[in-house]
Each structure stands twice: as C-alpha cells, then as structure tokens.
Backbone:
C-alpha cells in the first residue's frame, strides 16, 4: 500500500473520530436542553403547589367572612322573632358553625394534597432531567471510546 493511501486512511480515520466526538457533543447538548425543560416544568409544578395553597387559604378567609355574616343574620332573625338563642336555636347555630369549619378544613386539606402532588411532580421532573443528562454522558463516553477504538484499529491496519 502506498504512502498516499496510508495518509488518506489516517485522514479518514481522524475525520471519522472527529465526527463521533461532535455527535457525542450533540447528545450532551440535547440532554442539557431536556434537563432545562425538566427544571422549568419542575418550577411550574412548584408554583402550582403554592397557588393551590394560597387559593385555599384565601377562599377559607372569604368563606369564613361570608359564613359569619350568614350565621349572624340567622341569629338576628331568631332574636327578631323572639326565639331565645338557647337550646335548639343555639344548637342549630353551633351545628352550622361546626359544619362550616369541617368543610373549610377539608378544603384546606384537599389543597395540601394537591400541592403535594404538584411538588412530587416537580421532583419527578428534576429526576427525569438528571437521568437524561446521565444517559447522555454515558452515551457520549461510549461514542468517544468507540471512535478512538476505531481510529486505532484503522491505524493498525495501515
């Protein structure tokens, strides 16, 4: 085999190796992008968790105010009709207040569950991004190793 052929084989091997290294960089870039998307999704999920809790708290305050007005109106109607706020009438008002408080606490608890689901989603997104990056590093390393091995094999045959 002539020197020109050997030079061309060496050049071809170098170009092939360079191409494999560039492909490995591309794999890493794609994984980095996927990791950034996953991080963004995680932040959105965390924001949704905070919004769910905030909305539940805000609604509880509003409902408490509305309920207080309604319960006060009921008590006033009872007094206006000369119903003593004792015994059965008091039981009705207290039962209304108790049911209202139970409903409010259930709404807040449900918001906490929803927030927990969003936070779990955020953790899963971050893990998905990290796994994508890890897989890309492993793939890139394998591509580079294969490229170097192929280059040495090509050079050995020269």
Residues:
């Amino acid at each position: 085999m002539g020197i020109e052929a050997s030079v061309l084989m060496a050049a071809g091997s170098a170009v092939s190796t360079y191409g494999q290294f560039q492909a490995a960089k591309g794999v890493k870039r794609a994984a980095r992008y996927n990791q950034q998307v996953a991080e963004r999704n995680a932040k959105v999920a965390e924001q949704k968790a905070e919004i769910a809790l905030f909305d539940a708290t805000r609604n509880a305050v509003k409902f408490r105010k509305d309920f207080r007005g309604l319960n006060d109106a009921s008590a006033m109607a009872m007094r206006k009709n000369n119903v003593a706020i004792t015994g059965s009438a008091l039981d009705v008002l207290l039962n209304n207040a108790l049911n209202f408080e139970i409903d409010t606490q259930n709404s807040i608890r449900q918001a906490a569950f929803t927030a927990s689901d969003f936070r779990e989603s955020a953790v899963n997104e971050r893990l998905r991004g990290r796994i994508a990056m890890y897989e890309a590093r492993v793939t890139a390393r394998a591509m580079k190793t294969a490229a170097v091995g192929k280059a040495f094999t090509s050079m050995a045959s020269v």
Notes: The first helix runs from residue 3 to 80.
